[in-house]
Design brief:
Elements: H1 3-6, H2 9-26, H3 41-55, H4 67-71, H5 82-85
Helix pairs in contact: 2-3
Length: about 90
Amino acid sequence: MLQYEKLGSTNGIKSIANDIVKNHLNNPAIAPHFQNMEITPDELKHTATMFFIAGTGRPNNYQGRDMLATHKRHEYLGIGIYGRVR
């Protein structure tokens, strides 16, 4: 069984992604990094859903940045994941 299926397929992953985005946007330590987004929160939720679906074994048309590229800009703040992953 794919991780995709274990997480509840598209609806389950969508729920997880929505919760993650909501929690990020409501977290006072993280929310400021989303102030100048070029997309709406709903678009971010959709992008996160597609990213997680692709990463859990289900093909889709995700064309966004990978996790390292997305968080690299936060490296200078000491909160980026780039240095921790390598």
